[in-house]
Amino acid sequence: MPAKIVMIGGGSGLPVIIKPLVKADVDLTAIVTVADDGGSSGLLRDYVNIIPPGDIRNILVAMSGADQKLLDLFQYRFQTHDDFLAKHAVGNLLIAALTEMTGDVSEAIRELSHYLKIKGQVYPVAKEPLILNAKTLSGEHLSGEAAITAAHQALDTVWVSASKDNQKIEANPEAIDAILSADMIVYGPGSLFTSILPNIVVPGVKEALQVTPAKQVYIANIMTQKGETDAYTDAEHLAVLDRHLGKDMVGAVLTNQTEVPDDFVDYQRWGEISTQVKQDPEAIEKLNAQVVSRDFLLLRDAGAFHDGEKVAKVLLSLLED
């Protein structure tokens, strides 16, 4: 029976690692945040009252074995001069339509998974859209993922609240079952406070992560995020993750040891990044985690990214250990 790997996050980081992992003999599941309120996802969650579909769409594509022309259509985003449809991705609209037709977002994802020939499972962490909240280090309260990201302020803690009055916040049972039956849990890569932690703070998720027998791995970011994690080391990222988990649950940290050339990154183009994450192996070990330091760097498009093939190879070796 294939080993079960559960990846937790959102944004653009997860698909980079998922693409090579779907080629391996593993049972892969992605658990995705439902707190995104910007762009096409934000508009659809407001107008159609569904969970934000953007991260789900990107992960479906990463897991898909469908014809590339179909995937290009699924990912196509209408141009800004198209007025009513401006900025919407076709896949987002299809997820919204199927959710209305079936009355259940999980059923909508299952149907799309069939059409797109998905290898793996994609579960929203909750079936209702949630609001992400944050407390800054200065004590200010920020509400909404887009507002938190735009504020570029150092953050202390995040939590979620309901988007409707009297709505009970519940984790998706499928996500909880996946966590409890996993052989490995992988956090990231992705924005610590707005992609990874919004999953963990959903009631029921942290508790499941505290009792699962799975080996838990954190993929440390290559670059810090402006305002939110300026000057954070890889160990400081881990410390925040452990604090929100309630225990030192992470057993291994994948951290990039290769230097990003000073003149390569276009910081204006990639406006959310700040500087390269520094390594602090001794601090990671004090948090009871194994340090896995390798060359994980991929330089492209004037930015610094994870090399998905290299990361996937290390994850699979840890799984065998």
From TrEMBL:
SUPFAM superfamilies referenced in this protein's UniProt entry, alphabetically: CofD-like
Gene3D superfamilies: CofD-like domains (3.40.50.10680)
One Gene Ontology molecular-function label: LPPG:FO 2-phospho-L-lactate transferase activity
Name of a matching Pfam family: CofD
Membrane spanning residue stretches: none
UniProt cross-references to CDD domains, sorted A to Z: YvcK_like
One Gene Ontology cellular component annotation held by this UniProt entry: cytoplasm
Protein name: Putative gluconeogenesis factor
Native species: Fructobacillus durionis
